[in-house]
């Protein structure tokens, strides 16, 4: 097992900075998800570790060895792509044994290793079928088995669940995690889906415009986004731009917190809908229920409230049974525990 280190990696395609001075340390056996919107550089980072892109500057180390100029086939990596990329003319068993055949491993060793992998990816019953005779989820498990066959030090997964439907996605996501922990390989997992990243990863690296904005364990990222972008991208949050008075920002009787150090006149406060407490006839900042959306266990309220002479809109989630008596148009009082509010300066 080996860790992966990126040292100040930059990749420029003519005018585009796909990677902009990225440094990242992934420890041995860890699964790190690269999360970010389309075009933020996730795939370029993964392809650079694979040796499919050559960094414009910076170094990449696997297990402490500098692999920056090393061709892909000589890197100790396995890759899984969104599109499975199985050989259509080979069975599941032959697809998995292929990387061992090309490395001229002894036949007995290949047989043993393929049997072991078929068990790990749970494809024993489908071993002699061709790719067109198996489901998408099974095809991706086959691709995973093939990537793991040569016991790579690092497993690279590029949106491996994107082509699958919702139910299969969740099941296979958990399977990938189980297998990665079983074989104890270091893994980098690209996704633009925040819930997938948080469910599968030891740590999530949030990327934006070719840079890594924050690397944190999922609960820490969820509770304490370090940047405005991370706060916006991870978890659905209310965002309120508020004026600063006496070094503080607040929403009437709902909350008041210290303004962020670097801000001057205004700051943006972020807080999650589940942290908005809604009550009738008690202390808080008045708001009008504009819409109720029933989501099963919870109901989302769309609220309108006054911020100075402006009207701002907020979302609040509350248990559906508690929301049942609230009518659209009724006036409620909102409060937010200040420890759940994160504030960032408005760009000066
Ligand atoms: P997606 O989720 O859409 O795949 P991504 O986060 O993986 O996006 P990248 O594919 O890494 O993003 O692309 C990062 C930036 O680099 C984008 O602006 C993209 O257009 C650009 N880019 C990527 N590959 C090339 C290339 N071969 N030539 C020119 N520009 C490229």
Name the features.
alpha+beta; 5-stranded antiparallel β-sheet; 348 residues; OB fold (Dihydrolipoamide Acetyltransferase, E2P); 9 helices; Rossmann fold; elongated; 2 domains; binds adenosine-5'-triphosphate
What does this structure look like?
There is one protein chain. The protein has 348 residues and is an alpha+beta fold. The chain folds into 2 domains: 4-223, Rossmann fold, CATH 3.40.50; 237-345, OB fold (Dihydrolipoamide Acetyltransferase, E2P). Helix content is 25%, strand content 36%. The chain has helices at 42-50, 92-102, 107-120, 136-148, 166-183, 194-200, 218-223, 228-233, 320-323, and strands at 4-13, 16-26, 31-35, 57-62, 65-66, 77-81, 154-158, 186-191, 203-208, 211-216, 238-243, 248-251, 255-258, 266-271, 276-279, 285-294, 298-307, 310-319, 331-336, 342-345. Strands 6-7-8-3-9-10 form a 6-stranded mixed beta sheet, with helices on both faces. It has a 5-stranded antiparallel beta sheet with strand order 15-19-16-17-18. A 4-stranded antiparallel beta sheet has the order 2-1-4-5, covered by helices on one side. Strand 1 and strand 2 form a beta hairpin. The protein binds adenosine-5'-triphosphate. The site of adenosine-5'-triphosphate has 12 residues, from strand 2 and helix 1.
